[in-house]
Amino acid sequence: MADAASRLKGLIEQLLAAPLPIRIRAWDGSEAGPPGAPALVVRNRRALRRLLWKPGELGLARAWVSGDLGIDGDLYTALGLLSGLIWERGEDARTLAQALRDPEFRAAARGLFALAGPLPPPAPPREEVRRARGHLHTRRADRRAISHHYDVGNDFYALVLGPSMVYSCAYWESPDSTLELAQRDKLELVSRKLALKPGERLLDVGCGWGSMAIHAAREHGVRVVGITLSQEQAAYARKRVADEGLTDRVEIRVQDYRDVDDGPYDAISSIGMAEHVGTQQYLRYAQELHSLLKPGGRLLNHQIARRPLRDESAYDIDEFIDAYVFPDGELAPIGTTVTQLERAGFEVRDVESLREHYALTLRRWVANLEAQWVRAKGLTSPGRARVWRLYMAASALAFERNRIGVNQVLAVRTPESGDAGVPLRARTWN
Questions:
Q1: Polyketide synthase-like methyltransferase domain: which residues (predicted)?
Q2: 2-24: pLDDT as tens digits
């Protein structure tokens, strides 16, 4: 069909009942849309079949990961223009069932099916999670989910994260600072909030590649147990610990938080791990950590939060994130997290939002990935590199636009005496 882009643009706008804010470039070389805007590149009819057979984020994800869809132009600009149509339509957006009652919608859908051709779409990209039967957040399910995200190659993560090997929000003095300095400052911020002292025991839950454990042992003289479910992370962290000469003070285990039984600890850090716990397991998570602390011990829980909904029962997991990035991950509002920590027996002493800091961090990770794009694809796969680029860029925009946030919660297992050991002016750690 000649000028497929114009035909495609018209049908999409008819479906969405809204103008398309970016250009369309179709497989026949034709283009249509606002001059100068980034282009959504529809490389073949297969992209349409993926979208039509699986409407919504999952179809878009499959087309993107497979390379059937692409963006020509600045990715952030394109995602920002599309966000109102894809991610920010709000709770009042009409459902597919409502849309199908609209004759114009049905006519546009028929037109797209005709344009896409009669063949069904191919199988999902191999980077998509293959779901197994069973309950969420069993030990086996969590190991499998963590392996999907983290066991994709330490060299790939080193390329994205840089020398710090910290895979969580950095703490920026200014946007012009370096990623390495901002990550060091975040680890130091956590250490100060925990008031770490030489000889104390720290449990680092979800220790990643060992950065917090090494920082706490080297800079504050504590003895650290770091736990992760990722075999690749553990191997990498153990080598780093040995290279730093800290094997007498740092132990890295492949262990589930539910299986730690060698408390009490003076402090616990949980940085970017609680998002994997799941709503149904969260109270147990908080209770387990509470039981592992000595009276007066501190927990620093660093966790991404979503905004609350008018109807919390309507919350849906992000299909793209669940299928390609963080399987079985769940976000909760910060109020829910604080409530669960308090239900477990903690006294919450401080909550600090670092939302803007995560946006800056993600943009640096995307820049690292894009700067070594060819090597990144070789270290993992082209599809997985596309996954990471899209999810990090979209997440940066989500933090910038206040769709999600990230918070550090300092909680104490306050002893019966009531003395939590927190200074009257607590934020002296800044």
A1: 156-411
A2: 599 999 999 998 888 888 999 99
